[in-house]
Amino acid sequence: MNELSDFDVQDGLRDLDAARHGAAHIIAALHLGQRFGSMGPNSVGWYEIVPPIRTPDFQTNARIALAGPCMDLAVELIEFEGDAPVVLGSLESWRDDLVNHESGYRYDMIAARGGAADAAAWSLAFCRVNFDLIDEAAMMLVHATTNVDYRDFAARLHGRTKDVDSGALDVAWSDFAGGSVQLDRIDEAVLERLSGSWVGEH
């Protein structure tokens, strides 16, 4: 019996979902060679990296930022057996949080800094090929009584991530094929915000 099957449902599946989301960011950061301080829950129950990861590399930032949302999407695609409307619904949720809310996926979209269209397929493929490792990191978060330090994650997980191969990437691109316009609209909205011309829904 693995750790996840031992997880007490009464502790809250929402906590596990949030931990998976946060763990995906962590595993992507480790894979891409990025150090950070720690990860723990914030005041609204999301897990966040402290301090946030900011690198000079545009693609690295976007891939780490999209890993959390794409892990959520990967779980939904399993639950709904790859139903295409699931992808479109997720993209609508990402943009709605970005434009209309102060929480949810808004932070991840802004952290991608206009790179969602470029990073989404890689991040979804990465979460799929590293699904079990992300679950392992999620359980570290669920069972922790304080923030989990980078050194703890690295000691247990460093060197165990899998690369995204061309087959996995092709499948992920196919999943997002119907959502390219929505991804572009997300990036446009983020870039408007970063340029200081944010005007809300458009």
What does this structure look like?
The structure is a single chain. The protein is mainly alpha-helical and 202 residues long. The protein has one domain (10-194). Helices cover 63% and strands 5% of the residues. It has helices at residues 3-6, 13-31, 58-79, 84-100, 106-111, 116-129, 131-143, 150-157, 166-175, 180-194, and strands spanning 38-41, 47-50, 148-149. The chain has a 3-stranded antiparallel sheet with strand order 2-1-3.
Give a quick rundown of the structure.
With 202 residues, this protein is mainly α. It contains 10 helices and 3 strands, in the order H-H-E-E-H-H-H-H-H-E-H-H-H.
The count of β-strands is 3
Using only C-alpha atoms, the radius of gyration works out to 16 Å
Main sheet makeup:
3 strands, antiparallel
Reading the helices and strands in chain order gives: HHEEHHHHHEHHH
For the largest beta sheet, what order do the strands appear in spatially?
2-1-3
Which structural class do the helices and strands define?
mainly alpha
Low-confidence stretches: 1-11
Distance between the termini: 49 Å
The gross shape turns out to be globular
- Average of pLDDT: 89
Report the portion of residues in β strands.
under 5%
Count of the domains: 1
Provide the helix percentage: 55-70%
- Number of helical runs? 10
